[in-house]
């Protein structure tokens, strides 16, 4: 006796649903990575993935169109240069690695199998700016030392000029103090006039 058509369709639909649930994808839904670092986009299945099963990774753009970034069909075929397969199908792992992470890599990704009725998982990758410490390079150090030498040299020259001008002004004051005293009528007395006559 055969199975009625409606019952057969219901059994077939139930089988597909059961297969879909058994092969559902486990994945972390949000990953944050720093620019120029490495980001692991995990895609884990509850069971090992049979040999010959095709895995696809796609990036979902802002306008909801999809772009394949990697297909695994017994070997990985990446379509983007910084994406690499790191999964192990015997363990149910279909993860990929993005390295180095760029700002253009930010967005939504989906992973799943191509032929079986498996739920795909969406993963969001956020990319943060790289924090860099400004370390002086050799040219910066040389420029800094040269600037310091110039500042010290100019300071030394200014100090030397100031000392010379002080020295000249103090010598001039001493010279004026050594002049002979003026006579009462404002004239300078000659040496002979100031000496007393000898007898």
From TrEMBL:
Region (Disordered) location: 163-199
Transmembrane intervals: 141-159
Signal peptide bounds: 1-27
PROSITE patterns reported for this sequence: IG_LIKE (PS50835)
Superkingdom classification of source: Eukaryota
Cross-referenced SMART domains: IG
Pfam families: V-set
Any one cellular-component term (Gene Ontology): plasma membrane
Domain Ig-like: 4-124
Ranges of compositional bias, category Basic residues: 163-175
Main location, first listed in the record: membrane
Keywords from the named record: Disulfide bond, Glycoprotein, Immunoglobulin domain, Membrane, Signal, Transmembrane, Transmembrane helix
Topological relation to the membrane, as annotated: Single-pass type I membrane protein
Entry's localization field: Membrane
InterPro entries: Ig-like_dom (IPR007110), Ig-like_dom_sf (IPR036179), Ig-like_fold (IPR013783), Ig_sub (IPR003599), Ig_V-set (IPR013106), Myelin_P0-rel (IPR000920)
Protein name per UniProt: Myelin protein zero-like protein 3 isoform X1
Gene it is expressed from: LOC116957535
């Amino acid at each position: 006796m055969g199975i009625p058509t409606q019952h057969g369709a219901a059994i077939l639909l139930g089988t597909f649903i059961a297969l879909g649930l058994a092969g559902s994808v486990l994945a972390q839904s949000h990953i944050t990575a720093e620019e120029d670092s490495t980001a692991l986009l995990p895609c884990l299945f509850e069971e090992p993935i049979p040999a010959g099963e095709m895995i696809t990774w796609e990036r979902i753009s802002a306008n909801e169109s999809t772009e394949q970034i990697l297909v695994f069909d017994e070997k990985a075929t990446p379509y983007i240069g910084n994406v690499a397969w790191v999964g192990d199908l015997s363990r149910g792992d279909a993860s990929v690695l993005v390295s180095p992470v760029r700002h253009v890599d930010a967005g939504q990704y989906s992973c799943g199998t191509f032929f079986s009725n498996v739920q795909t998982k969406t993963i969001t990758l956020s990319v943060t700016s790289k924090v860099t410490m400004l370390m002086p390079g050799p040219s910066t150090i040389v420029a800094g030392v040269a600037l310091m030498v110039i500042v010290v040299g100019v300071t030394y020259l200014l100090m030397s000029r100031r000392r010379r001008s002080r020295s000249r002004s103090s010598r001039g004051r001493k010279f004026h103090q050594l002049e002979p005293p003026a006579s009462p009528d404002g004239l300078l007395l000659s040496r002979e006039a100031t000496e007393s006559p000898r007898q």
